Amino acid sequence: MANSDSVSNGTASTRPDLGDIKTLEQFILEQQDRFPHSTGAFSRLLRDISLAAKIVNRDMRKAGLIDIYGSTGETNVQGEVQQKMDALAHREFVLALRRGGECCLIGSEEHAEAIPLDTSSEGDGKYIVLLDPLDGSSNIDVCVSVGTIFSIYRLPDEYDEDEPDLDAALQPGTEQIAAGYVVYGSSTMMVYTTGNGVNGFTLDTSIGEFLLSHPDLTTPKTGRIFSINAGYYHSFEDGLCDYLDWLQEYDENDPNRPAKTRYIGSFVSDFHRNLLKGGIYMYPATQSSPEGKLRLMYEANPMAWIAEQAGGRATDGHTRIMEKSPTKLHQRTPLFIGSEDMVRRAEAFLQGDPDRVAAGE
Ligand code: AFP
Asked: Considering the entire predicted model, what is its pTM?
């Protein structure tokens, strides 16, 4: 999108013309053309997801004007208070995927069990979608950025798409065929990978299309930002406290120290900022969340793949996130994700061998 929306004298002057822009749909179709035997089912599935994201975006922009602030009064399967927007976003994604017919099984943060979809009428129903429909939703009432995270798997051959066994969803992250997120921030962006790099699309609300704005996204190898809820410092393991102390030390030979804390408390937004600027996001085990807080299947795995595809790294401190074997849909995991050098150093501290990564390199 060269020459788009340049700003001069404080006003947006030029707008991209048709020759400059590429819509998400055009991009997906171009990718599809690379595979001669493609049926288009996967492209339609991505279209369904992007449609639900646009609807969630539209509804969210009206929060405060219509009755979608606050909680439903229910708790979700995690025992967390469910926000009205959580329930609405879950509903929109399930509806879009059901209508599209390409997905036979959905796993959602907002639903205790995986949801089988009737695939008898439309589409091939060969795909499984795992999602957190609205991450960071406790931030909505105060106008802070939130997001959607999704992960797509193929239904393994041994399962029947008309009656998919719920265990079909329990695949390691290495089996993902697409992963992405939508950040509903100062603008709304969808970022995704199919294992061929990472691309970002910004929603142009005036025409209702996601437009390619961040082609071939890569993340800096290191950075100056660390994102963690330091309120839990006293329940972190010693290695992590040492790493946090190290990050905050001044070192005249290291331009990235002292590092800067940035923590929104909305994983998608924290991750997105760090992806673009360089940094590390950490949600470790704590006293109240001994297995960490974030969910392996629909938060950690998709973001881990995006991070890796952009040149970053994601582990639980010891094991690569995408190689963890899931045993349940809502499984949690500690998570250290972001710029490769920063994650490697965090691992070195956590494994009691901080000198493994030389300072200032
Ligand atoms: P909510 O969806 O309940 O707001 O939780 C958001 C989240 O899962 C993730 O987006 C944040 O990074 C993390 O929780 C914040 O948790 P803490 O409040 O414990 O720091």
From this structure: 0.92
